[in-house]
Amino acid sequence: MKLRNETMKTIIFDIERNSFVDGPGIRTTVFFKGCNLRCKWCHNPESQNPKKEILFYNSKCTGCGRCRDLTVEDENFFCFNDAKEVCGKEYIVDEVFAEVIKDKAFYETSGGGVTFSGGECMLQTDFLLEILKKCKENGIHTAVDTAGHIPWESFDKILPFTDLFLYDIKAMNEEIHKEYTGVTNTLILENLAKLLKTNVDVWVRIPVIPGINDTEDEMQKIKSFFDINSYPEKVELLPYHAMGEHKYASLGKSIEKFDVPDKGKIEKLKNIIVSY
């Protein structure tokens, strides 16, 4: 009879070691494939589809023909020119943990750990729960990066095994949120209000997109939300960047372009948020 960890599988599109941007200390970030939002500024479009995909960078292709019969099942395919790759690899829980545990010594000396991200890692709640349990059993600090558009029952399941939530606020205006992410923010804000009342650490992260949510009024609404509910341990403003544009082309998708926010504007918005 197979153990549950050996039968439960999910698609991971990247495991990034030595990360300093997804929680405290040195971290390993595990990126789950699949997301239920479609943010128009998303810099990881390969994270949206839960299935494996082939990325093709036409400008790098020399026409050697090695990839002519490439399919998404060829996970170990290697292109010498980095022109084509299979995005997504199937993992069982123990295989993910084997990658995470490699840097335990660095986690312990830096106050780091593992962060589960995406896509939306909470769409794979059962798999996420199993890997969180395994990490906690081995003394590894755990963080979950989520957009929060998930039933609260999923939060309930993983709360006992999660040390930190990295929680996105995309926009407070419901119509704007739906227009630019594909979903309303009602469930997201309801879940955040509940989460802020638990004893789990929460860092709120706000992607700052010029013309969408970069106004003083928007930041004041976020601050008012914290005034009514509770304050997170930390708030981060993440300026929009265009580093993911080439990925859209590799998937045959078009991208909506936004301006990069001015540093002075970011500081002004930050002062409103942190004034508590």
Structure report:
With 276 residues, the protein is of the alpha/beta class. The chain has one domain: Aldolase class I (TIM Barrel, Alpha-Beta Barrel), CATH 3.20.20.70. Helix content is 32%, strand content 21%. The chain is built from 10 helices and 10 strands. It has helices at 4-7, 93-100, 104-110, 125-137, 152-158, 174-181, 186-195, 216-228, 245-250, 263-273; strands spanning 9-19, 27-32, 53-56, 84-87, 89-92, 113-117, 141-146, 164-168, 201-208, 234-239. The strands form 2 sheets. The chain has an 8-stranded mixed sheet with strand order 5-1-2-6-7-8-9-10. The chain has a two-stranded antiparallel ribbon with strand order 3-4. Helix 5 links the parallel strand 7 (141-146) and strand 8 (164-168). Helix 2 (93-100) packs across helix 4. The longest helix is centred in the middle third of the chain and has 13 residues, at 125-137.
Shape: globular
**Mean pLDDT figure:** 94
Termini separation: 55 Å
Q: How do the strands line up in the largest sheet?
A: 5-1-2-6-7-8-9-10
Query: Could you tell me the radius of gyration in angstroms?
Result: 19 Å
Total domain modules: 1
Tell me the major beta sheet.
8 strands, mixed
Give the % helix: 25-40%
Topology:
Elements lengths: L3 H4 L1 E11 L7 E6 L20 E4 L27 E4 L1 E4 H8 L3 H7 L2 E5 L7 H13 L3 E6 L5 H7 L5 E5 L5 H8 L4 H10 L5 E8 L7 H13 L5 E6 L5 H6 L12 H11 L3
Parallel strand pairs: 2-6, 6-7, 7-8, 8-9, 9-10
Antiparallel strand pairs: 1-2, 1-5, 3-4
Helix pairs in contact: 2-4, 8-10
